[in-house]
Amino acid sequence: MATKSTDSGSAADTKTAAVSGADGVARALSGESKIKSYVIASTAAAIVPVPLFDIAAVTAIQLRMIQKLSQLYGTPFSESAVRNVITALAGGVLGYGVGAAVAISMTKAIPGIGWMLGMVSMPVIAGGSTYAIGRAYLKHFEEGGSVFDFDVESMRSYYDEQFEKGKKLAAKVKAEARKRSAEADFEEAPAA
């Protein structure tokens, strides 16, 4: 029995592909928006003057971000799988890895100026890392991957590239927060 092909079938397929493409763009834009929101949260968490709290808070924020991206893409989430990837990717940050982040965080324990030293670089590193991890997972999910088949080595150079972009974004977030804080202080200052 022969089947007959009609133009209406191919038109329906084209329409489905167009809707799927539009949905894909909307999903990617939603993912980008989520990533930027979590960059802001990571940058803010890194400013807290408590040693090691910043690293724990940023890790929790990054885990939550990937969980939300997994939900957006309809893929299952595993905290342990994602935590392993975060550790592996962040291990190459600044060429020193997690040890450098811990050392920077620990400077907050130095009486007097320690918290200021930690605030200079930790928010930018935290925001940059969050951005890069989010972008790497977003790319991976866009390509049909899941948290269970993320290949750190194949994503390493992309992560490094996104980390540099993320540091610039985090520096802007930090500067904007500083500006808003100064404006709020000015508005609250009593008139002389």
List the SSEs and their pairings.
Elements: H1 7-47, H2 53-73, H3 79-90, H4 98-106, H5 114-142, H6 152-188
Helix pairs in contact: 1-2, 1-5, 1-6, 2-3, 2-5, 4-5, 5-6
Account of the 3D structure:
The protein is mostly helical and 192 residues long. It has one domain (28-179). It contains six helices and no strands. The chain has helices at residues 7-47, 53-73, 79-90, 98-106, 114-142, 152-188. α2 (53-73) packs across α3. The chain crosses the membrane at residues 38-63, 84-106, 112-133. It is a multi-pass membrane protein. Keywords: Membrane, Transmembrane, Transmembrane helix. It is found in: Membrane.
Sum up the structure in keywords.
192 residues; mainly alpha; 6 helices; 0% strand; globular
Q: What integer is the average pLDDT?
A: 77
**Helix fraction bin:** over 70%
Count of DSSP-assigned helices: 6
Beta-strand residue fraction: under 5%
**Span between termini:** 94 Å
Shape: globular
- The total beta strand count reads 0
Largest sheet: none
Order of helices and strands: HHHHHH
Uncertain residue segments: 1-19
Q: State the secondary-structure class.
A: mainly alpha
Integer tally of domains: 1
Radius of gyration: 21 Å
Summary?
By secondary structure, the chain is mainly alpha-helical. It has helices spanning 7-47, 53-73, 79-90, 98-106, 114-142, 152-188.
